[in-house]
Amino acid sequence: MTISEAELPVARAVSAHAEAPRCNVSDFIFEQAKQRPDQAAVIEHASGRRVTYAELAKRIENITFGLTQLGICNGARTVFAIKPGIEFVETVFALFRAGAVPVVVDPGMGVDNMLKCIEEAQPTALVGIPMAHLLSKLKSHAFRSVKQRVTVGRRWLWGGASLDELRNRNATGTQAAPTTAETTAAILFTSGATGVPKGVVFRHGVFVGQTEMIRDAYGIQPGEVDVPCFALFALFSVAMGVTIVLPDIDFSNPGKASPARVVDAINAHHATMSFGSPAVWKRVGPYLEQTGVTLPTIKRILIAGAPVPYTTLAMFKGKLAPDGDLHTPYGATESLPFSTISASEILGETRHDTASGAGTCVGKPLPGVNAKVIRFLDGPIASLDDAEELPAGEVGEIIVNSPVTTQEYFNRPENNRLAKIGSAGFQPASDVDVPSTAGSDGRRPTPIAGGTPALRLWHRMGDAGYFDARGRLWFCGRVNHRVETANGTLWPIQVEAIFNNHDAVSRCALVGLGDRPKQVPCIVIELHEGHIPEKDLRERIRGELQRMADAHELTRGIRFFLFHEGLPVDVRHNAKINREALKHWADTQLPEVTQ
After folding, report:
1. What are phi and psi of 302, to 5 degrees?
2. Three-state DSSP class for 455?
3. CA 52 vs CA 40, 64, 89, 543, 546: distances in Å
4. pLDDT at 591
5. For the chain, does the N or the C end have fewer beta carbons within 10 angstroms?
6. Are 491 and 396 in contact (CB under 8 A)?
């Protein structure tokens, strides 16, 4: 069975001896160009530049041709270092179409970590802005495998091609790489917020599955307008036929995003959706309350990256379209999306349990997502038969198996052993029925049948949680952030929610002083004012927090409270608390803890 290039791809595996159907995430763009050629695909709000789907497809075709001529194709690992904008979108899809493998490293992880990741990936090409090329010359050891270069912007002394040269070629009938669902599409490095950054291998079938699952989960329709505050998510939107309007913000620092600029981009273009970390919406919410501005065209806001305080969600009540809502999808780089829950359900029901220490409800797993909670086991788990599934209500480790669950880390066999679990129930991919045509709306069903590439291995999320009686998952914290005391195990998300009820507390973090299993629990407090108060006020707040701890069985053994001007957070979303750094800091404060 052969699927023509004009058809949307399907993430299906086939047996090794059979012909694999074509699958490339860039095909979404070419399908959209046929259906809505004159619709804007990408708009830069600050500059006013825009490109239609027809123009975007043509640019991608030209760049693909140029990349292929340079040898940046067919599995060539390519450092991708371009700021969000039209060039960002057209170049990444051209790399996909050429069969090259973009290597995406978050600069916010720090130069040393970034260089280690690049050196580990052994890239043969670099496509990036001038500063990226300059860095490659100054730190040549990390880029020594690079042979081909493409500069996005002004080319200086390093040679190679420029993106303008590739884009302006009039390529016609360019042959796209013969990729399948199993072909490696990209390597995305984790931020390293909970350990050493790891390169997650994404295959084209996973990217296609993610696009379709996100679209179907939220009912996203072609022709909508998205103002994304996280650049990578923008790629899903444009693949769905949604116009993306890039706001005038620093995408690498969402915690400093101007709420006025985000709101201006939304309202100026009548956006129907937006995506961003809690750090963004924690700034936008108060801005709306203070100015009285609303977002009357917004149908959905997606917030991901860390648990979202219900106080943030409540700020948007009455500010969106009549049928609008906020949603908090749950997942990880290795498996996203996993589940989702709306602000309506949180504010109307689950927030009360969260405030009492139940954890954060992240909703029911999406269709096609298989999830279990298993008893904690240190070390690798070779087979699912070696894991004990826990009943509802019991906290354990969350594992997942779905069409969008990645199968491996790049060049990290030990991490693969620790994070992946084999399943004896895997069925040969030849049993999968591969439809040959799309539906009347140009869509295909999400690939969830057994035997797809993503169903081979289970992924250990590294998160702790439990299912309730209604099948909803409750998140309790990272497994390696647990605090093991002489009286039992404490989970950060459960414990912190109790103290977050204090009017003066912006957020807090549970850390364990000393070594397991006899750690001393300590709560580090960040106040709304963003500074450490004078001693008298500090002691008053400490006393109030202590009474809150004593009133709850879960927190009754906590005796130590510290104040911090601003809890350290991850570089990608500016929302996840960097607990390793905070624990190190807390260890230095022992004199204050024991006073």
Report:
1. -105, 130
2. helix
3. 4, 18, 12, 60, 59
4. 53
5. C
6. no
Between the alpha carbon of residue 349 and those of residues 204, 354, 360, 363, the distances in Å are 38, 9, 12, 12
Q: Can you tell me whether residue 332 is helix, strand or coil? A: strand
| Residues 389 and 350 occupy one common structural domain | yes
AA letter at 139: K
The rounded distance, in Å, linking the Cα atoms of 595 and 585 is 17
Classify residue 384: in a domain, yes or no.
yes
The boundaries of the domain holding residue 386 are 342-427+449-481
Q: Please, what is the average pLDDT of the chain?
A: 88
- Following CA atoms 277, 283, 288, 289 in sequence, which dihedral angle do they give, to the nearest 10 degrees? 120
Model confidence pLDDT, tens digit, residues 242-289: 999 999 999 988 889 999 999 999 999 999 999 999 999 999 999 999
Report the relative pairing of strands 101-104 and 420-422 from DSSP bridges. unpaired
- What tokens appear for 178 in the block? 């013969």
Same domain, 358 and 414: yes
* CA trace torsion 138, 139, 140, 145 (10° rounding): -140
Predicted local confidence at residue 571, as pLDDT: 65
The CATH number of whichever domain residue 580 belongs to comes to 3.30.300.30
Residues 351 and 454 reside in one and the same domain: yes
What is the token pair recorded at 334?
A: 């290795």
With a CB cutoff of 8 Å and minimum separation 6, the contacts of 376 are 396, 397, 464, 479
| Backbone phi, psi, residue 503, to 5° | -60, -30
Q: 529 and 465 share a domain?
A: no
- Model pLDDT, residue 6: 31
**In this structure, are 472 and 562 located in the same domain?**
no
- Reported as a single tens digit per residue, the pLDDT across 543-573 is 999 999 999 999 999 999 999 998 988 766 5
| Tens of pLDDT, residues 309-323 | 889 999 999 999 999
Closest by CA to 169, choosing from 12, 263, 60, is 60
Checking DSSP bridges between strand 520-527 and strand 560-563, what pairing results, if any?
Answer: parallel
Q: Is 203 left (phi over 0), alpha (psi -120 to 50) or beta?
A: beta
| 564 and 457 in a common domain | no
Q: Residue type at 216? A: D
Same domain flag for 525 and 589: yes
- For residue 410, tell me if it sits in a domain: yes
192 — pLDDT class (breaks 50, 70, 90): low
Contact 83, 234 (CB under 8 A): no
Q: In the prediction, which pLDDT does 572 show? A: 60
Give the long-range contacts of residues 31-39, CB within 8 A, separation 24 or more. Answer: 31/6, 31/7, 31/442, 32/57, 32/222, 32/238, 32/239, 32/241, 33/57, 34/6, 35/222, 35/241, 35/442, 36/222, 36/223, 36/241, 39/223, 39/241, 39/243
